[in-house]
Amino acid sequence: MADTVTVLMPTGAQQTETIPMAPRPMALRGLRVAILDNGKEFSDIVLDGLAQALARDFEVTDIKFWRKGFPAKGAPFIPEMAAESDVAISGVGHCGSSSPWSVIDAVNLEKAGVPTVALISRSFCPLGQIVGRGVGHIGLPIVMLPHPIGEADEARIAQKGIDAAAECVRLLTTPANLVSAEYAAKTFPLPEHAVPRS
User: What is the model's pTM?
Assistant: First the structure.
């Protein structure tokens, strides 16, 4: 028996080309806002709260939900979604499979020219950032939500979306070069109990 073990790391190779940040509008009023629900439990509650806050506090009147039904795969309707949207919000990533795919969906929307942010819970923001950078989007904006997302009280879950609304609006309406620079330099906190490499 051999004394060595081969370990395969399924992280993929980083793309050589950098995906540019989609140009941002100055405001969301009058624009078509797409909300991409990844199908992960509790995501619908968070995103419903977010939509209510966008309508109430930011004069967003045209909101359309897109639901892919299963969190661990890419959205199959990105071209249609891009054609019908001016800006988008993708989420909610709060596990090891939903977080990468929410980021990939956001990157694909950005590639289609739609300014997008991804909503990811605190414990999975570093993973989301690694995935975004791995597919070539160095400055993809990720809005960090509290972890865990799920709670017994649905009002507290919805509040996480409500609390994220202002940051989503800021990242969707700040000039693209500033958002890109901010997130290219951003470091998310490691998950609790994670041990950094020495």
Answer: 0.90
